[in-house]
């Protein structure tokens, strides 16, 4: 399976998960000059949540997990993209509203099973 295909399937799973929790989706695959934000949503408390999705096919013998793909450089880039989005769309943010960055790490196993870990406020 191609890396992009696996990534899109992971993003779809993450979307289904947050929608089942009562979150609203503001944007998916939001492209910026420096990259892409996978999911931009609002949780039931009104907090805007930027979600980075990392997916992996199968368990890696060395213990490598999808969340290991989020290097410190990628995290800084993600933070910069979230700040740019916030500056471009101030109408989405109330004066006292918060925003945060989450990570959804998904490992796809055989038989259409998946392990999902939701890291809040990375």
Structural account:
- This protein has 122 residues and is α+β, with helices and mostly antiparallel strands.
- It has a single domain (3-64, 96-119), classed as Trna Endonuclease, Chain: A, domain 1 (3-Layer(aba) Sandwich).
- The chain is built from 2 helices and 5 strands; from the N terminus they run αβββαββ.
- It has a 5-stranded mixed beta sheet, with helices on both faces.
- The longest helix is centred in the first third of the chain and has 18 residues, at 3-20.
- It is globular.
- The chain starts with a helix and ends with a strand.
- The mean pLDDT is 91.
Order of helices and strands: HEEEHEE
- State the helix count: 2
User: What is the gyration radius calculated from CA atoms?
Assistant: 15 Å
- Helix % is 25-40%
């Amino acid at each position: 399976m191609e890396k992009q295909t696996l990534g899109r399937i992971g993003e779809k799973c993450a979307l289904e998960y947050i929608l089942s929790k009562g979150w609203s989706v503001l944007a998916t695959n939001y492209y910026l000059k420096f990259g892409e934000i996978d999911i931009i949503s609002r949780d039931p408390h009104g907090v805007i949540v930027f979600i980075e999705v990392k997916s992996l096919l199968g368990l890696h013998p060395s213990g490598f997990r999808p969340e290991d793909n989020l290097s410190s450089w990628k995290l800084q880039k993600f933070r910069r993209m979230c700040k740019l989005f916030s500056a471009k769309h101030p109408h989405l943010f109330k004066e006292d509203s918060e925003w945060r960055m989450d990570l959804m790490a998904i490992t796809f196993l055989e038989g259409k099973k998946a392990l999902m870990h939701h890291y809040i406020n990375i």
